């Protein structure tokens, strides 16, 4: 997490929902960008990872599901997940980066490996929905890279 407003809620629950910080064209911070109540960065990343494994042909099970005890375990740690806007002369670039450490023995995943993503998109005008759009593109990139990692592509 890059930087959050120290005047805002700094509880672990709030930090778990933080995805960025709004800034004006001069770099002045304008407030934190957080996911809606009930959504967390770890939850979004978990879904993206599950999608990547499913696209690679695996069945993803969670604790409590049938056959959970027989499944090959994979652990994930979100190291970095952040979105930001970069003002330019003619356009504004939306960016999202992430780093997730995976550990397990599934397909071509052996031991600990890292999935790193960075997506960017240039726009003339940025709206509040662009935060969601760039985060969704980042999550899609996590799923694609996870699939490639597991299949050995």
Keywords for this entry:
about 150 residues, alpha+beta, Double Stranded RNA Binding Domain, three-stranded antiparallel beta sheet, two-stranded antiparallel ribbon, 3 helices, about 25% helix, elongated
What does this structure look like?
By secondary structure, the chain is α+β, with helices and mostly antiparallel strands. The protein has a single domain (40-151), classed as Double Stranded RNA Binding Domain (2-Layer Sandwich). It contains three helices and five strands; from the N terminus they run αββαβββα. Strands 3-4-5 form a three-stranded antiparallel β-sheet, with helices on one face. Strands 1-2 form a two-stranded antiparallel sheet. Strand 3 (74-87) and strand 4 (92-106) form a beta hairpin. Helix 2 (41-55) crosses helix 3. The model is unreliable at 24-29 (pLDDT under 50).
The CATH topology, please? Double Stranded RNA Binding Domain
Instruction: Please state the overall shape, judged from the principal axes of the Cα atoms.
Output: elongated
Strand portion: 35-45%
Number of strands: 5
Unreliably modeled segments: 24-29
Placed side by side, the strands forming the largest sheet appear as: 3-4-5
CATH architecture: 2-Layer Sandwich
Cα-to-Cα separation, first versus last residue: 30 Å
Number of domains: 1
Order of helices and strands: HEEHEEEH
Radius of gyration of CA atoms, rounded to a whole number: 17 Å
Q: In terms of structural class, how would the helical and strand content be classed?
A: alpha+beta
């Amino acid at each position: 997490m890059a930087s959050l407003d120290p005047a805002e809620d700094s509880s672990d629950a709030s930090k778990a929902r933080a995805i960025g910080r709004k800034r004006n064209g001069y770099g002045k911070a304008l407030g934190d960008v957080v996911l809606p109540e009930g959504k967390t960065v770890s939850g979004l990343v978990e879904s993206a990872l599950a999608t990547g494994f499913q696209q690679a042909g695996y069945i993803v099970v969670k604790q409590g599901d049938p056959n959970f005890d027989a499944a090959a375990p994979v652990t994930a740690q979100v190291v970095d997940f952040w979105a930001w806007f970069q003002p330019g002369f003619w356009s504004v670039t939306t960016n999202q980066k992430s780093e997730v450490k995976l550990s397990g023995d599934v397909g071509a995943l052996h031991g600990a490996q890292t999935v790193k993503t960075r997506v960017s998109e240039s726009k003339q005008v940025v709206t509040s929905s662009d935060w969601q759009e760039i985060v969704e593109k980042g999550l899609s990139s996590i799923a694609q890279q996870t699939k490639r990692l597991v299949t050995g592509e």
